[in-house]
Amino acid sequence: MLRFLFRLVGMFALAVAVIMSVLDATRTVAASRLVMTPLNTSWITVSPDSLAAAQQFVQTRLHPLLWDPVIVAVLNLPGFVVFGIAAFLFFALGRRRRRPGHFAIES
């Protein structure tokens, strides 16, 4: 059941990564130059209140230094990269393990 949830979240992250990459590709063609939108910009566009709430939560409940060097660095990466890496990690966590063979030598 847990593997299924990891694969489901991985599929969702992959879908978001593809959507964000298509948006960046469209903007690149329209601007005739390479455009890679940072995750921070996309998040502010979609829901600025939730970004402020996440920042406040991390700084008050976890640790203030976690927000500035770590999370800000991740938010400055292109969105499709962040969600692509997340998808890879969730798929890796949800993959099925190979069962060992019944025989000592398998072909």
Helix/strand class: mainly alpha
Assembly of the depicted chains: single chain
The fraction of residues in strands falls at under 5%
Roughly how many Å is the radius of gyration?
Answer: 19 Å
Mean pLDDT: 91
- Biggest sheet overview: none
End-to-end Cα distance: 32 Å
The H/E string reads HHHHH
Helix content class: over 70%
Number of helices: 5
Shape: extended
Question: Any low-confidence stretches, pLDDT <50, length ≥5?
Answer: none
Number of DSSP strand runs: 0
Q: Care to describe what's here?
A:
The chain has 107 residues and is mainly alpha-helical. The protein has five helices and no strands. Helix 2 (39-46) packs across helix 3 (48-62) and helix 3 runs antiparallel to helix 4.
Structure summarized in a few sentences:
The protein has helices at residues 2-31, 39-46, 48-62, 64-75, 79-93.
What order do the helices and strands come in, and which of them pair?
Layout: H1 2-31, H2 39-46, H3 48-62, H4 64-75, H5 79-93
Keywords:
107 residues, mainly alpha
